Amino acid sequence: MSAPRISRRIGAIAESATLAVDAKAKALKAAGRPVIGFGAGEPDFPTPSYIVDAAIEATKVVSNHRYTPTPGLPELRNAIVAKTKRDSGYEISVDQVLVTNGGKQAVYQAFATIVDPGDEVLLPSPYWTTYPECVKLAGGICVEVFADEKQNYLVTVEQLEAARTPKTKVLLFCSPSNPTGSVYSPAQVKAIGEWALKNHIWVITDEIYEHLLYDAATAPSLPVLVPELADQTIILNGVAKTYAMTGWRVGWMIGPKDVIKAATNLQSHLSSNVSNVSQRAAIAALTGDLAAVHKMGEAFNRRRKLIVGLLNEIPGFECPLPTGAFYVYPSVKGVLGKTIRGKTPRTSAELATLILDEVEVAAVPGEAFGPSGYLRFSYALCDEDIVEGIGRIKKLITEG
């Protein structure tokens, strides 16, 4: 019997469901189909021109054509230190920062650095589809803690405590949330942080959507509210969502010095330094004003209200109004089991397939983020497409 061609470790990784849906939608559009894609978590705005201009100038500087320090350009790391104090009120030093190839590499390296085989990671659900794969690659065990739409998708300390065991090492925390757009209140953040501190649990906190907030919501950083937690907290962030820079691939980790040093050692073998041109662009983003960010936020806020109103007009859909990010996460359990054009979807995955096949609208099913019964829609697309896309779904569901 021959050995398997693909290692068990890599063979067990699931494809990114969000990217798969986006790729399928784009392929259909390229073939001339009028597909409207709600799948990708990607702003539809161009990167602000002052950032692009900084990158163009950076291509002309010979030092940017060479290797640079693995943890990031000193100027960028200093900019991250200043930005963190400005936006979060959290004071850190430059040796607590590691620049990574996008937020995903930061997620992977955070788990790889502190998780050993057999360690349990508490994963509030619904969760971003990449988190469990990174946990598994590190040898960890995911323990899902589910909060449904009645809880606005926010887990409680009581739920976390019920899931905790002697093997629990890490809590993954994300607010504002992908996929739900839900935001924990300062009181909830503090209570969770105090619980983690009391139980000696590490927290990996993803702050990538920190600037995408609505209705006076705030997203305080955990170690600001619970300073004693700083020595067991890793913060993940990046420029992708805030500055419409998903393709530039610049993220970062902030954490205790020994953790950042260990993660830097890993990155030195994995990918070395991030593209210098992208790093120079990120410096321009972080040191510039937030006017362009606020303008994008105004558009997202308008679209948020639009899409929630339209989704809640569909019989069987129940969509809370999120206060962060650019996603909505309606329950579609009221539609499952009903016959639509001769087909009876029993799961949200089957419903998503039916919607794409019948009316050429792409959404990501709840199975990508936890339990079935939900769909994720990104509203990072124009108002006209939102109206047309959700209108097609409504017509499909209500046509009898």
Automatic annotation (TrEMBL):
Belongs to the class-I pyridoxal-phosphate-dependent aminotransferase family. It comes from freshwater metagenome. Its cofactor is pyridoxal 5'-phosphate. Residues 34-387 form the Aminotransferase class I/classII large domain. Pfam families: Aminotran_1_2. Transmembrane segments: none annotated. This is Unannotated protein. Keywords: Aminotransferase, Pyridoxal phosphate, Transferase. PROSITE patterns: AA_TRANSFER_CLASS_1 (PS00105). One of its GO terms (biological process) is amino acid metabolic process. GO terms for molecular function: pyridoxal phosphate binding; transaminase activity. The keyword Heme does not apply. The keyword Oxidoreductase does not apply.
